Amino acid sequence: MSPRRSLPRTFAPLTLVAALLVPGPQAAAASLSDAEFFGKWSNGAWVTAPRVAYDEGLDEVRRAVKDGDYGLAKQKLLDHFRERPAMSAGRFSHSAWPGVLELTPDHIWTLDTGEVYLTTLTVGPQETTVKADVTTSVKEGRTGFFLMSRYKDPVIARFGTSEKSSGTPTLRLTLADGSERTLRPSHDTYIWAGHPGTAYGDKYLMQVSDQGRGPFSAETRKAYLQFDLAGLPEVKKAELSLTGSADAKKDVMLYGNGDTFTEASRTWSNTVQYTYSWQGDPGGFDWKQPAGADKEYLVQLPRFYFAGPLAEAYRQTGDKKHAGTLIDLMTDFVKDADTYVADGAGAYPNSLSVARRVQNWIAAYEILRTSPSLTPEANTEILKALNRSAAHLETSEQGAHNWRQTQKAALLHTAVYFPEFSRAPQWKANAVTSLERLLDESTYADGGYWEATDGYARAYASQYVDLALFMSEHGLAFSEAARARLRKLGRFLMDQTYPNGYGPVYGDSEPRDVRSTLRRLGELVDDEELIHVGTSGASGKKPAHTSALYPDTRVAVARSGWSPEDSYLRINADRGNHSHTDELAITAYAYGRPLLPDMGTFTYASDPRATWLRKSTESHNTIEIDDQAQVSTAAGAITSLISNSSFSLVGAHTEASKGALHERSVLSLSSGLWLVSDRLKPSDNASHRYEQNWHFTPDANLSLGSGQKAATTAFGDGANITVVPADPGRVSASLRDGYYAPAMYRVENAKYASYVKTTAGRTTFDTLLLPSKGAADRTVAVERIPVGSTPAHQATALGLKLGERGEAVYYKSWTTRASRSFGAYTFDGKLLYAETGAAGQSIMLVDGTSVKRDGAALVTSPTPVKDLAVAIGKDGTVRIDGAGLKASTDPARAIAITTADAAKVVLNGTQVPFHRAGSLIYAAAAR
To answer: Which pTM value belongs to this model?
Structure first.
């Protein structure tokens, strides 16, 4: 536990990694001796085989080893690497880690973006107001702040709180409209390690202190502030003012914080902490997870996510302190942690961490190898650790597929970068073979990625692109079969992606732009459609399809097109690692905005908000049964996708809840409208509680109508959505308090709409989801239409009042085809949607032959039509869309459509001839 320099932070593109347990006490295992690494020569032979390939220009090293002079061998080995030509060393996992250059040398460590270091403030005996420009932090969504002692000393700093009559903290904002606002904290408090269960939210002063050995002591106190910016325009500038004093000069670190809290209940015990300090501790940092820290602590720090910023700072400035800091950290890790026995010597704390550390070390070594700060001894210790890590990665494949992919990627990089290692050829062959096999094992037959999270899928695909390009530089290549599998994975990513190019955040993920990954994939496998989506249409070829079904992955996406203004709806019954308890959940997007989002992840820590987001069904856009979370590995399926250019119909079911089978049907209109029908089939005759939830971002300004009980958003600009239940009198509706995590380590309060019914026997929910380009129309209404004596769980019909759009009727049969009447309509198929409005008339049907209104035929087909959409425009254009339809004017075979003013007919995008017979036209027939 050497008193070396210290660490910082940033989040790797591949790692939103699962929580890891803190290893218990470790037994020590000796590191490689000089003889084990360089070999031992005696009596004309190697009595200990070297791990160094001396035929790689290392003759002087070999002579020194044969002479038994390991000190000289180390010097000659360093000389070799200093003189070696530059070589591709891969990329760092992180290019930035706020605070790394200032705080790392003093062993002050922070997780990724949980608390982002901004500056250090100074107060003294006389009460002083200190100010800090916090614009960047606020613009990035961190509207809270965190204060911590810069040095371990007995001095206590005290800052005024909102309870104080003077010296109150303020956040002065300059807004986009030019106005200024000054806010007081909505919450401010401090936490005290010596009193872990005590809340100090009602105090006039916040205290900041840190002293003693280790990451904290009983005297450690940290302060937190939070400001409410809800409803304000875009912030152009933000300045934080704090008024405080200390018994002597005191330096206090200021961090931006994205975690919400309540001052009345925040204590040391219930606060997930991201920043710890070993400043001045002669024992240094032992690379283990501190008590109370987020579980990512043991994930991020041993992987050296901070190596990139330090190494690049040295490259750019030539300042030896940056190189010295990083070299000290690497050798300190070798001394303190690389000999811990976790899952094998040199494998601390697990194989994925080994792989990530190796990748960062290799990239750093390419920069550090010429630094005067790198001594022969330090160089040898680093190379020994890398060699032993590669030996571990050759024989060990642990964890999920993305873990193993990263392990073999690190092995490949080591083999290519260090031909001086004797087993480099074997490592190279092992890595390429394993990576091809893993690509096949990690994807379903339909091309979907087996882990139910878009962040991991994107990162997994992106790393394969990096690998393919790296291999190409060094005369290696994946097989055609592997390339074909990678192309299918790319298509899966493309279909999951929102129309604006971002991922939909399902599973353990956060919003990320997927386009660069799609573009690079498309260029790698020569796929013009991937390139088109990856460049937002700037190049490539627009995909020939819109909606997509992945039956093996158990996911379907219904979209109207590929431009940012198009609509998108995703439904899943997926399972696998990182899946949330969100079976049959919907995420929806329209007119440039996610309107029904996934609510994110926040953290892997044991925080009740994170638990709610990741492990509750209530936090997703689906139905929770009997207040119990689903079992996401239960049986389920996306049973069907019927799609044409006018609409898509998705059918799905899940057995993820013990109480009842949940079936969900979604009609998605390309014109921008969704109808969701849910059917619950309980396994007994008991009464069950069903809660259908719809979630929105915190800035949605959600409201709930009293009559129709419609939930309506009111964003400051752009798109909105109205959620309208079909049976307002049969459900209790409320707006409830939930959470939204816009990124890892950030969480906000958010309202969601809850519709609850408690009943025995089969029951249904039918819901209209109506997006709008601007303000939502609050006159929208849904009325249930009786279907004779048929109960709603067998067939449902709705009358829709759609405001300026017009009126419509919707019908769905949950059973086999049968002719049924509802309102003015009679229909014999499985689904009907008929709309009349300013744009004209439209009829959409699935698996039917006849649609009548007031006894008069509107559409009649000699044979059942799988899917048909008819739109009759005011200009006399009749558009007909449907799978398997062919042009035909034969009345004996063609579909009869009633329209008096047809001027032309367009079938599946192509104008075709038509035959008129009175008020009927014939232009298309079912095959």
So the answer is: 0.89
